[in-house]
C-alpha cells in the first residue's frame, strides 16, 4: 500500500467516523452517547491526517512514494462494516446470548412512585425497585415500560428487553421483564407495556429471578433514539 493509498484510507475512515457521530446518531448503536465528542475528535484527526498524506502524494513530496505494509489495508474493514453493512443496535439475538443477569444493587428502598395514574420507568429501575430490601415500591402501581420483544424458547411467553451498556456494545447485558397476559409481538418489535408488577410467591427471592409485569396494554412504538440503558 502506497503512502497516498494509506492517506486515502485514513481520509475515508475519518469521514466515516464523522458521518456517524457528528452528522447522525448512528454511533449510539455501538457506544454510550457520552463518547460523541471523542468520536468527533478522532474522526477529525483521521480525516486531517489522511488529507495531508494524500496532498503530499499529489505534490510528490519526499517519502510520499514509500510503501507501507499490506496489513494497512485492514483499516478498510471498519469502513466497509459501517458503510455497507451498518450493524443495527443489539437485539433479541444478543439478549439470548447475554453473559448473565444484571448485577443487582440491593438498596434500603426507593422513594414511593409519584405522578399520574401511570408511571414510566426504565427496565433497570423497575428491576431495582422489585428487589428493594425494604419491600418493593411497585405494589399496586401501574407502570409503563419500553423495550423490544424477545419470545421465550417455549414459544408461549415473552420478555420485554432492553440492553444495558457501560461503555460500548461489547459489554452489553440484557435487562428482561417477563410479560404476562398479552400475546408476544414479533421478535425485536419495540413496544410499550403498561401494567402492574407481579409479586413473587414467598417474597423477594435471594437469587435472581426475572421479574414479571401483568400487562393491561401493549402498544407498538418507534425505536428510541438511544436504544440502550
UniProtKB/TrEMBL annotation:
Q: Name one Pfam family in it.
A: DUF1980_C
**UniProt entry tagged with the keyword Transmembrane:** yes
Q: What are the transmembrane regions?
A: 38-59, 71-95
Please give the InterPro entries that the UniProt record associates with this protein. Answer: DUF1980, DUF1980_C
Q: Where is the DUF1980 domain?
A: 139-228
Does the UniProt entry include the keyword Transmembrane helix? Answer: yes
Entry keywords, A to Z: Membrane, Transmembrane, Transmembrane helix
Name the NCBIfam families for this protein: TIGR03943 family putative permease subunit (TIGR03943)
The molecule here is called DUF1980 domain-containing protein
**Which species is listed as the source?**
Nonomuraea gerenzanensis
Amino acid at each position: 500500500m502506497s503512502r497516498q493509498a494509506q492517506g486515502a484510507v485514513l481520509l475515508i475512515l475519518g469521514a466515516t467516523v464523522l458521518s456517524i457521530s457528528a452528522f447522525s446518531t448512528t454511533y449510539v448503536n455501538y457506544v454510550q452517547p457520552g463518547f460523541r465528542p471523542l468520536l468527533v475528535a478522532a474522526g477529525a484527526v483521521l480525516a486531517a491526517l489522511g488529507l495531508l498524506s494524500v496532498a503530499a502524494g499529489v505534490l510528490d513530496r519526499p517519502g510520499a512514494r514509500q510503501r507501507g505494509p499490506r496489513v494497512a489495508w485492514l483499516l478498510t474493514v471498519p469502513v466497509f462494516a459501517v458503510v455497507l453493512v451498518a450493524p443495527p443496535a443489539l437485539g433479541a439475538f444478543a439478549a439470548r446470548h447475554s453473559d448473565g443477569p444484571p448485577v443487582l444493587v440491593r438498596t434500603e428502598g426507593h422513594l414511593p412512585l409519584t405522578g399520574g395514574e401511570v408511571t414510566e420507568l426504565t427496565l433497570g429501575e423497575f428491576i431495582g425497585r422489585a428487589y428493594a430490601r425494604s419491600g418493593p415500591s411497585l405494589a399496586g402501581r401501574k407502570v409503563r415500560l419500553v423495550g423490544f420483544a424477545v419470545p421465550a424458547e417455549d414459544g408461549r411467553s415473552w420478555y420485554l428487553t432492553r440492553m444495558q451498556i457501560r461503555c460500548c456494545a461489547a459489554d452489553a447485558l440484557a435487562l428482561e421483564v417477563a410479560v404476562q397476559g398479552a400475546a408476544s409481538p414479533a421478535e425485536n418489535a419495540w413496544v410499550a407495556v403498561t401494567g402492574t408488577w407481579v409479586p413473587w410467591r414467598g417474597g423477594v427471592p435471594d437469587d435472581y429471578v426475572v421479574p414479571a409485569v401483568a400487562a393491561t396494554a401493549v402498544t407498538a412504538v418507534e425505536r428510541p433514539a438511544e436504544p440502550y440503558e
